[in-house]
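Researcher: I need the complex structure. Ligand is 2-phosphoglycolic acid. Inputs:
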Amino acid sequence: MKSKIFAANWKMYLNEDESLDFISRMLINKDLFTSHNIMLFPSHTSLNSVKNAIIDMPNIKVGMQDCDASLFGAVTGSNSISSLSVDACIVGHSERRIIFNEDNDIINEKLKNCLETVETVILCVGETLEEKNDHKTFKIIDKQLSILPKNLNEKKLIIAYEPVWAIGTGLVASNDYIQEVLSYINNVIKSLYSDKILIDINLFYGGSVDEKSVIDLSTIPLLDGFLIGSASADFEKFENILKKMR
Ligand code: PGA
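Model: Output:
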């Protein structure tokens, strides 16, 4: 089985001290953490400290959980993707779409800016429970993917399928369901991109991934990795996920 990528979305769970404590615990078991493909997404205020603290684990990537739709300007309290040097950025997370009312136009701006600035962009897509029950999943995914540009500027794109009803709920989508949606996404990207570009696109699942669900989920054929929220911000849980996937 191809080794998976683990993207840890720490959301607003860890402050700077807690983030640094997390990294020092990683360093104690450095072999485990450096043997996996890991991406860390700390809060913006902890990014620089985390970047400095992981200097001895150079294969670990660090990214922003979100960025502003603009690159520069009078946007009090916001953060541009070019404000810090990071490896990656998440755009279109359902918490941004729902809590911050971000629509496709805003996410499109963010995606464009990120594809010009960072090495890897994670675009999150997924339907709400209501949309699922109304059999609108593919329609919603189609709309969310309609912002994909013709060219990825030789950057890496990760499309994370995160059903909104599975995020933070303990409800994990079934393997068959995830595979069906990933196949759909795969067909969409195959219709858009050449084989040369497709190599740089990975498909992830996110939504209540933890040490109990990760092994079974990792058997999904089209799955390249996971976007993990709460379990990634709990050191023991994250360590256990990686131990299980060794
Ligand atoms: P969760 O979050 O693992 O806590 O469900 C996943 C995500 O929002 O990316």
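Model: Summary of the prediction. The radius of gyration is 17 Å.
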